[in-house]
Amino acid sequence: MASIFTCNISPYVALNSGNKPRFGVRAQSLGGGDSTVLSSDVIVVNGTSFVGPKEKNGALIDGGSGEKVKNGTLIDGGKNGSLKSRIEKKWVKDAVFKDLELLWDDGHGTKTVKDYLDGAKEIIKPDGGPPRWFCPAECGKPLKDSPVLLFLPGLDGVGLGLALHHKALGKAFEVRCLHIPVYDRTTFEGLVKIVEETVRLEHASSPNKPIYLVGESFGACLALAVAARNPKIDLVLILANPATSFSRSQLPLLPILEALPDGLHDVFPYLVGFVTGNPVKMAMANIEYKLPPRLQFQQLYHNLTALLPSVSVLSDIIPKETLIWRLKLLKSAAAYANSRLHAVKAEVLVLASGNDNLLPSKDEARRLKSSLKNCKVRYFKDNGHSMLMEDGLNLLTIIKGTCKYRRSRRLDLVSDFLPPSMSEFKCAFDEMTGLFRLATCSALFSTLDDGKIVKGLAGVPDEGPVLFIGYHMLMGLEIYSLVDEFLREKNIMVRGIAHPDLFSEIMEGSSTEFSVSDWMKVMGAVPVTGSNLFKLLSKKSHVLLYPGGQREALHYKGEAYKLIWPDQPEFVRMAARFGATIVPFGTVGEDDIAELALDYHDLMKIPILNDFAKDLMSKSSRVRDESKGEVASTDLFIPGLLPKIPGRFYFLFGKPIKTKGMKEMLEDKENAKQLYLHVKSEVQNSIAYLLKKREEDPYRSIIDRTIYRAFYSPLPEVPAFDP
């Protein structure tokens, strides 16, 4: 059996200026003997020993224990690479980031499967070594206190299955990838022990941090097996098309391969490659969606022609003997994992493809959800078996959107929040809601300290804490434009306080696709609780709060632009406690895009819809008790809307109300109530102002805006009325 290896991996691999490999790595052996460095540009350790110097740029400090360094890669060469020596190493101060910048570069869309194949070409060179861990150089420096993420590969065993996600994941995790050499014949139980040993060492080192196991196909079986054997360790499993359904595969790979003549076995990996992945989706991974169709097609053609010559490396990655061995290994892995599902206590997120031609992944995801105690599923209908190599899937975004990212034992949506990257911003606001925002073409106005109303957001404070208090439009349709405009104009992340049902099993049951509700979590939404508001204001955030909440967003006929707020001044004292600036705002436009045809009372008169609405309400959580007045109503329903030719959304942010230094004064209930009523009055005045002034807008209709854009303006810039 192969000896057990694990890593002492720095989150940043320092590369010599003259040698910048695509997949530089860092590895460390826990046992004695030689270690091997893996790299796509042939970083080979030849035994040269460097003792004493420090490795710069955020690497580890050599303690003089006989470590080997080659091309910016550090390897423990001591006799006993023990846990003690691992823990005693010190991070250089610049090895980690404290925070991520807003709209940071996550590298999404810059890599394709060709980069995986080019990297695999070098990594698979035989060295006679056992399975081992490595850290891709592209992962870079992680955030402070980032958890460890262990990637467990599929049948290929290369360990570069996250090649398209290295840069993004490297900011949020200490990423380590398992490499199983081509001619290694370690049994499944042996591989389980290798991963288990690393998991236990990491847990002993950081017992309060979760450990992430990302398993692809075969690797998912490995992750489940480790989780079943270690129920007391805090594990989070991300399983991409788990091969636990291998016995139900419609493609009998093993019999075909064993019967295939030796002269044709070089062709088989090509066939498997096209079965397990969608070549077009893979080739589109780095194509900008905003390109004209002609340029998109040219880029796709170029990517496909560049990819085809590289596919020949598949026969080297999985030669016939290796493929036969690993298919048998997969059979035993699936049986092992399935027999122990009852023992899995870890959090599990299953990612299932709709076009998986190798495994019945969609059905398997349903089975695992019902079999595991704490399991979520996300379904990607257009992806193939090798989904992590294909376009349209950002693994870090999925982890964030399903609330699976945390740095400690308990999820904290405030402290664990990672700001959206530029690619997430483009996907959420250009691809997902771009047409809606184009149709509604929001016009925003704000009020300066002297009371003057101006176009844009100049009147909104740049420094927090800021508490936005406003009217919740029908179905909350204004949120997408509001968050988008603050990011574009002021580079400010507005954190929305949302209904708890957005984070509950109600949303899980209604859809398993990565949906708008998931994107809201990516963009910083948190459940409405006093503690979350406290944490956000203490971090000087810009917070969006709707006192009318669900009742206002799901109002009845005749209640458009009516404020349905609680009687008690819920937010005033909290704002004063942190000296937050309250910015009241109004928004109008719901009656310009749709007519409310069926409200709650109408639905209750229709038998089938009546039962559906009652079932939905029975599962809904209650945010307020009856003492809060009409706003406490929990009539959760989906209204019937008749669309109109789109008009326009308008926002007016009122004069900022400073509460700094007013904490003691607002302790008095009467003073707090007076400020509360003042804020409410300002919101009502803003709505009245917009309803009147929009009549003066020559571009209120989408038809007029379309004509204007055709002749004069870039897409986002269409004038409105003069304030």
What does this structure look like?
The protein has 723 residues and is α/β, with parallel strands linked by helices. Helix content is 34%, strand content 13%. The protein contains 25 helices and 20 strands. The strands form 4 sheets. Strands 10, 11, 12, 13, 14, 15, 16, 19 and 20 form a 9-stranded mixed beta sheet that branches. The longest helix is centred in the C-terminal third of the chain and has 25 residues, at 669-693. It is elongated. The N and C termini lie far apart (77 Å). Mean pLDDT is 81; it is low at 1-97.
Structural class label: alpha/beta
Give the uncertain stretches in residue-range form: 1-97
Helix proportion: 25-40%
Described by strand count, sense and barrel closure, the largest sheet is: 9 strands, mixed
Shape: elongated
Q: Mean pLDDT, nearest integer?
A: 81
CA-CA gap between termini:
77 Å
Structural Rg? 28 Å
